[in-house]
Design a protein that fits this description.
The protein is an alpha+beta fold. The protein is built from three helices and ten strands; from the N terminus they run αβββββαβββββα. The mean pLDDT is 88.
Length: 146
Amino acid sequence: MEVEIKIDPTCKIPRIVIAADRITDDVKALAEKLSAEDPQSLSGFKDNTVKILEPEEIIRIYSCGGKIVAVTDSGEFQLRKRLYELEEILEGKKFVRISNSELVNLKRVKEFDLSAAGTICVSMSNSDVTYVSRRYVAKIKKILGI
């Protein structure tokens, strides 16, 4: 694939043109990726500060006492979105729901322990341990290909 960038001072809005001899699955995927809107930014609140959280830095998101908390390497931040909204925003970013109250970043999972009967223990990169609820075990096994 060739990439060409043209600088045109009269062009006020960036425009992307894909030139190909035919439409293939790769061309469709590229067009969809390029036309997709940027994901909404996530604002994390801690004490009296607000931090913009990138999806890659979030290890897990869970609900506790009616509050939604994002866990990162730099601490825990409160989010002002509902868990289902975060699931939609983070769709395609390797986040998966493991229970009614928790999402985990698959890129930050250290291991899945399947030894416990009927449940899956999840060890995260920051040494947190959490569990997949029985309702979501089949979904996780499908994602893992087991």
